[in-house]
Amino acid sequence: MTLRSALPALIVLALIVLFWGGLKLDPRKIDSPYLGKPAPRFDMEDLFTPDQRVVIDEWAGQAFVLNVWGTWCAECYREHETLLRIKAQGRIPLVGLNWRDERPKALQYLAQSGNPFERVGFDPQGRNAIDWGVYGAPETFLVDAQGTVVHKHIGALDWATWQRDFISRLGATGAQGMTP
Amino acid sequence: MTRSLGLLLLMCAWLVPVASAIDVETLSDPQLRARYETITEELRCLVCQNQTIADSNAELAVDLRNQVREMLQNGATDAQIRDYMTARYGDFVLYKPPLRPRTWALWFAPAIVLLGAFVAVLRIVSRHRRAPAETD
Fold first, then answer.
1. pTM score, two decimals?
2. Does the distance separating the beta carbons of B92 and A132 come in below 8 Å?
3. Domain boundaries, chain A
4. Per residue in A83-110, pLDDT tens?
5. Which residues contact B25 (CB under 8 A, 6 or more apart)?
6. Which of A59, B58, B109, B135 is deepest in the core (most CB within 10 A)?
7. CATH class name, domain B2-97
């Protein structure tokens, strides 16, 4: 009898716990379906030299980071310091995907703020970005030496997050073959 | 009377949903265009999450509409286009979530709750029917 009278309260309590947990989820952060799966391809015009291509095969057998950015993206300015620091750290190459941008603006931005990227692909129509499931900028993907997407970060990247979510995964997922 | 009715109708105009986003290019084939409209109404714009890609003017929505249009022109089936989108953006891109073990709670919980409520009401009613005979 006591259990039966307590039942409605228990159900309400369970719902409160469920919804409370739900409140903490960020609907803007959508898990990439590529996590743990082979990375999609990219094949883009080089931002600096339009007659060259930036193709994913260049990093075959080695881990790399793909960073999606654009000069129209305010958050990208915020994370630029971190990207430069990642380059200085020298543990992993950064590949840039310049998304829906204008070439002169992108070139000027890199000339002014410094270029953290090994190569930068130019994707004005967003074709490669769609293939990677990009829906905002900045987005940063970590691909391991086996070509698997092991992490995706949405939003501006700070140094603590880089160390915690990226560097920690590098050791575990075979950093062999990386350029020093 | 007619004036106030007219005013009422005018006020209702606010409730009419805003026309969908305008495409620069359109499909000339009416059959393809109909399929295009259906599919883009089913896909979520991930930038403005409560809009479909048909409704949204976000740049990503424009890109995804272009992609859908191109795939239709190249003879892709509706299922192929949906698969293409979910492979890249996950089930979240679909306005109607697919039925899988992970979404069973989502699909069946309302029916189960309704059934439970129905059973509870039945029991309460039958108890009340019996009760007066005993007390009176």
1. 0.81
2. no
3. 27-172
4. 999 999 999 999 999 999 999 999 999 9
5. B66, B69
6. A59
7. mainly alpha
